Fold these 2 entries.
Entry 1:
Amino acid sequence: MITDFELPRGAGMVRLGPEDRVIIELVPEGARVLDLGCGEGDLLKALTVIKGARGEGIELSDACIQACVRKGITRVHHSDIDEGLANYSDESMDFVLLTNTIQVLHKPLQLIKEMARVGRKCVVAFPNFGYWRVRVQLLLGGRMPKTGRLPHEWYESPNIRLLTLLDFREFCRKAGMRILKEIPLRTGGLGRTRRANFMPNLRADVAVFLLEKEAPK
Amino acid sequence: MSSDAPKREFEPGSVGLVETRYFNFAQPPGELTLECGKKLGPVTLAYETYGKLSPEKDNAVLVLTALSGDAHAAGYHADDDKPGWWDVMIGPGKGIDTDRYFVICSNVIGGCMGSTGPSSVNPETKKPYGLSFPIVTIRDMVETQRLLIDHLGISVLHAVIGGSMGGMQVLQWAVSYPDRVRLALPVATTGRLSAQAIAFDEVGRQAIMADPDWKGGDYAGTEGPRRGLAIARMVGHITYLSEQSMHQKFGRRLQDRAEYGYGFVPDFEVENYLRYKGDAFVKRFDANSYLYISKAMDYFDISRPTGSLRAAFVGVKSKFLVISFSSDWLFPSAQSRELAQALRLNDAEVVYTEIKTDYGHDAFLLESGELSAIIGNYLAFARDGGDRKGT
C-alpha cells in the first residue's frame, strides 16, 4: 500500500489521492513521466521517490509551481497545456499523465492527441459525472450536482467539460486511442477505496484510464 | 554626546554594516584579453560579501547586478540611510539567507561603481580612459568574476543569481563554467536582447551623445552630459515599469497644481517622477559607463557562437530556476519560456515560473514574498531534489 510520506529537512508532506496511488502502481521503475497540470507536485514527487522516475511537470499556477519547488522538484514549467505540447518531441516520454484536469480543458481532443504523440503511454484520471450521487442530485433535486470531487457552484466552476466513463470511452475511439486498462474507483464514503468493476459508470466516482495510441492501419 | 557614537542598530533581517572590497588583478604584462580582442589591465572589481563561507566552501551564492547596480546589494555602509539594492532579498532569514549562504555580490567592468570602467584612469596616459576604454561584453564581465571566485578560493558556486543584465551573466556563467555552478537562477532576463530592447538602449545612448556636454566622451573634470544621461534614464525607467503600474502610481494626476499649466512645465506627476529619477541617476552614474554597459547588453546573444539557443546550452550541468514577470515588456515572459525550453531540450533540470505582477521588469527589485519564497526554497531544496532518490 502506497501511503502519504514526509519529505526530509522540513520540505513538507506528500499527500496522495486514491487515483494517485493507482497511477504510481501503473508507472514502471525509472520511467520518464510528464505530468500535465501537476498542481503542487505530490504525484510527481511520489513518482520520483517511489519509482525513481524522471518526473517533469507542466503547471499554469505560479502558486503551485512555488509548492513544487518547495518539494524539491527541479523539472516543472509554467505553461498552458491548452496551447499544446509543441516543445515536447515525439515519444520523448514513457508516460504522460493528465489527472483531474481533462474537465477544465478547452481543447481536450487536441491535447489527448498531443499526449499520444509525446508519450508512449498516457494516463487520464477524471471525476465521473455518471456517478450515482451525481445522477440522483440532478434527477431528484433538479439542480446541478455538487460532490466532494466536483464541489463548485455552476457559475464559478472551473470544470467546463464534465464527462462520464461512457463518454470517455467514445472520446478515446474518436481520438484514436486504445484503452489498455480502465480502473474505476469508489472513493467516497467512509470505507477504503475499492475498485468499482461492476456497473462502473454508476458506482465509480473517479476512474483511471491507461491508454496508448492505436497502431496506424 | 560622547565621542564614541552609539553602536548603530539595524532592523531584523539586515546584514548590518558592510564594506565594499576591491579585487585588483590583470597587472601588465598579464592583462585580461577581452572578447573584442583588446587587452585591459590592471583591472579592479568591486564586490561585497555577506554571511560566512563554510569550511567546505560549498555555500557560496554569487549575486550579479543589473545595468546600474553596484556591489552594494545588502546591508548598510557607514554613511548610508538606505540599504543596498537587493536588501529585500539578502539577509538573515531572507530569500538568500545569509545565515546559510556566503553571498558575494560582484560588480561589472565597464561600470562606474568602483570597478574598472571608462571613468577609470588609464595607467599609460594617466588620464581617464573615456572612449579609449575597450568594449566589454557580458562574457568579459563573467571572466572577471570567475577570477574573483578563484581568488576567494571557491571552486563550485552553490548558486548564481541575477536579474535583468545580472540574469545574462548567470546564463553566461552556466555556459562558460558548467562545472562551477550548481544552481543557476536567471531572473527577468533573456538569452539574447530583442530588437525592441536594443532600440531603447540606442535611444538612451543617442540622448547622451547628442548632449554637447558629452564632448565625444572626453568630459572628465566637467559635469558631463547631465541632460543626456537623465533622458537616457527616463527612457530606461519607462521600460522598467508597466502600463498598469504607471497607471496605478500616477494616473493623470497633476503635480502641485489644480489646473493645467498650458505650457511646457511639468504638469503631470509622471513627468515629475521621471525628471526626479533622471536627476538622481546623474548624481551616481557615469554617462560613458551607460554607453558601455548598454552596448554590452545589446551584444549579448548566448546563441551566437552556436547558432541556436538549444545548441548554446549543450553541456550545461547546472540546475535552473528561470523566473519571469507577467507584466515585464522589456524582457517578456516568452523570452524566458524560450530559454527554459532550450535548456530542457538539453535535458537540463529546469523550473520555469512566471510570477503574476503589475510591476513590470523592475518587479525583481521590489519586496515580494513570492519571489523571496521561490528563490529561498529553490536554494534550499533543489540540491537534493534530483531525479533519483539519494542524488
Entry 2:
Amino acid sequence: MRQIVRLAGALALVGLFTSACSGASDLGDSSGKPLSGQTLEVAAVWSGVEQANFKAVLDAFSAKTGATVKYTSGGNELPALINSRLAGGAPPDVALISQPGVVAQLVKQGAIKELTGEAAGAISANFSPAWKQLGEIDGKLYGVYFKVANKSVIWYRTDRFSDAGVQPPTTWEELNKVSKTLVDGGITPMAVPGADGWPLTDWFENVYLRVGGSDNYDKLSKHLIPWTDPTVVQSLQILKDYWGTPKVIQGGRSGAVQLTFTQSIADVFGEKPQSAMLFEGDFVGSEITKLGKVKVGDRAKFFNWPSINGSKPAVVTAGDQAVAFKDTPASRALIAFLAGPEAAKVMAAKGGYMSANKNLDMSAYPDDTTRQLAQAVVKADLLRFDLSDLTPQSFGGGTTADMWKLLQAHLSDAASDPAALAHKLEEAAKKAYGSK
Amino acid sequence: MQGRASDRLRDGRLIVLLFLGPAMVVLLALVAYPIVNTVWLSLFSSDGSQFVGLGNYNEMFTAPDTRRAILNNTIWVIVAPAVVTSIGLVCAVLTERVRLGTAFKAVLFMPMAISFLAAGVTFRLVYDENPERGVLNAVVVGAHDAFAPPSVYYGMSSRPESDLSAVDGAFLTPEVNAGTPVLIPLVGLPFERLPSDARPASAVPARGLTGTVWLDFLRGGGGTAGVIDPTETGLPGVRVSAIKEGEVIATTTTDANGRFAFPQLSSGGYRIRLDEANFTPPFAGATWLGPTLVTPSIIVAYIWIWAGFAMVLIAAGLASIPREALEAARIDGAGEWQVFRHVTVPLVRPVLIVVLVTMMINVLKIFDLVLVLAPDSSQDEANVIALEMYRVSFGGDLNFGLGSALGVLLFLLVLPAMLFNIRRLRREHT
C-alpha cells in the first residue's frame, strides 16, 4: 500500500513538472492582431541556448500576429516524438526536422501538408531555386530550411600553422603538402574523431561530391548507381591515402577510432593542441567558443574544403526544415514568417545560426567568421545535402548504421581495401533500400 | 440463517475484489499485457505487418551481431557475479576485524549511490587512451617510464629525399669519409621538446671523422632542406656510432651544437649510425576500450559499483552467525583460513547464494554501462543482449520484431533465476 501512495506521489510530481514546463512555454498573448486567440505548437530539436534564441523568433511572430506559440523540444528523439504524436492524433502544427529522410517518409504517409498560399510565396521570394528545391518532393513544396549548416570547412589552429610556416590549402595536393610540412615540424596535422561514425560520413561526402560530381552524388543518394561505382572506390582510396599517411592523424588509426567528436574539439582547440586541424561543420565554431580556450577568428580559423582534381567550390550542407502538419492559416503564417528575412535576422543576431535566405543582410551576423561561413553557403556553385541523411536510417543514420560502421573500419584498418569496402557498402545499401 | 451466511460470503468476496482489483488491473496492464504483446510482436516482421513465425528467432541465433551479444552475456554471467560475490565476501570478513570497519564499508558502498550512467561517464575518463586524460593509462605509463624512460628525440624522422636509411628505429648514413663534415638532418620534433641547451647548428671541419645532427626545420617555415640554415638548432646528446664493415668501432655523443667528432678515425668507408636508443618511443599504455579489452574493462567498472553492495549484504549475514561456532573451531585448533573455509563460508552460504543470484539477474539485463562506456567504434565487440535489443529496435532499423524476440530471449534467461529466488523465499517463509 505504501508503495502505491509513493507511486501516486511520484505521478503527481511528474504532473506538476510537466504542467510547469508547458506553462513556461506559453508565449505572449495580445489581441487585435490577425491571429489573436489562436494557439500554435512548434516542435524542434533545440534546447538550452538555441531554444531561447528560437523562442525570441517565436516571440516576434506572436507580437506581429497575436497568436500564442508553444514550443516543444524533442531533442535528438524528435522523429520519435512526432511519430508518437501523429499516432495519438495530435501532431504539432509546425515542426523543424533535420532529416530529409524522415520528412520524405512523413510526406508519403500524408502527415505533412503541402505548402501553399503565403507560405509558398514567401519561400519563392526569399530563397534561391536550389534551396527551394531542397524543400520539394516530387515537384511539390513541403518545407523550407530555416537553419542551415556548412559542412565543408576545415578548422585549424593559426598558431600551429604559423609555427610550421604553412598557409591554409586550397587544393587536395596542397592539403597533403601542408600536412607533410606539419609532420616535419613535429605537429600532428589532423584529428579525425572516428569513435563517432557521423564525422566520417561527412569526410566521405565532401570527397565524393568533389570526385563524383553533383550528378553522381544525387544518384548515389537515391541508390540509382551502386556503391561499387568507380567514383566511390576512388573517393575511398583518397580517404585511405590521407588517413594512412604516417603521423598525419592524431593517435594513429587505432587512436582515431577512440576519439570522440567532443574530445577532438578539446584536443585541437584546447590549451595544449594535440593536432593542428579538425574537419567538421560550422558548428565547431560555437563549440570552440563554449570551450573558451581560444578565440574563433583569432587562433581558431577555418578554410573551405580543398578542391580535388580541380573541382569547383562545393558545399555539403545540412539543416532544419520547417514543415506543417496542419494546413491552417496560422501554420501557413508561421511558415511564411520563418521563411522571411525578419525571423532569420532575429536568430542570426544571437549567433550560432546561419540562414540560406538570400534577402538576409549579411550584417545581421554577429561576427566575420559566421559571415564567411554563411557566404560560402549562399554563394556555393555546388550545393548538396548531407548524403548520409538522405539514405535510409539503417544505412546512414545511427550508431549501428552500416555506412558509419564500415567507414570506421576503413579508418581503423590499415589493410582496408577500397574496392572490397565499396562492395560491402553496396550489399548494405541493397538491404536498406530494398526494405524501404 | 443460511441466507445470512451466503451474504457474508458474498460480502467477503466483494471486499477481496475491492482490495485486489486495483492491483490486478495494474499488474495486468503493466506486466502481463506487455509480456504477451512482446511474444506476439516477436512473431512478426520489422514493422509488424507480416507474420514470420519463428523467423526472428532464427535470425537472432544466426546473425553475427546477436551471436556476439549472447557470447558476451555468457562471459558476463560467468565472471561478474562470481567476482562481485567473492570480493564482497572477502571485504565483509576483513571489515569485521578492523577498527574502522564501518568507515571502510561506507567508502566501499559509496559507488552504489552513483547511477550507472554517471559511473559509466566517469570510467570512460578513467579508461581514456591518452595518458594525459585517462587515469589508468597515466598510472600504467608512469610505472613503465620509471623503468624505461622514453628518449628525448622519439618520433623524429628523416626527410624522404635524404640519403639516411631507417633501420630498426636507428638511422644509418651511406659510406662517408673523414675530412668533410657529415650532415645528418632530422625532422619531426615538436618545438616544445627541443632541449633547452640546444644551440644553433654548425658544421666546422676538424681533424678526423666529424659531422652534425640537427633539426632541419625552421620555426615559422622557410629554410632549405638538407642545408644548415642560420637559425636551425643542433640536437645535443645524440648517441652516434661509427661503423666499419658491420662493426661498431667508436661511439660518441653530440654537443650543444649537434656536432660529433671521432678524431681517431682518419680513413674512409665509414657509416654513421644514430643509435636506436635516441628514439625510443614512449609507452602508449593500453587501449582499454578498444575491441579486445572493452568487455573486461566494462566488467571491472561493474564490479567497482556492485562489490560494496555485496559486501554489505554479506556482512549482515556474517553478523548473524553464531560466534560460538567460530570460537569452537578456533579452540579445536583450526587456523584462520580453515575457519573461513569450513565454518564462515558454509554458515553464510544462503546469503552468498542470494547475492549471486541477484547479481546474475542484474548482469543478464546489463545495458546502460555498456552503452555509455563502449565507444561507438567498439560497441559491436562490447555488445550484450539488452543493448542489441535496443540497437535493433531503436538504433535505425526500427526492427521491432527482432527486438521483441531478443526481449523474449532475455526474459527466458532471467526466468530460472527468478523462479529459484521465489522458491527459496517461499521455503524461508514456511
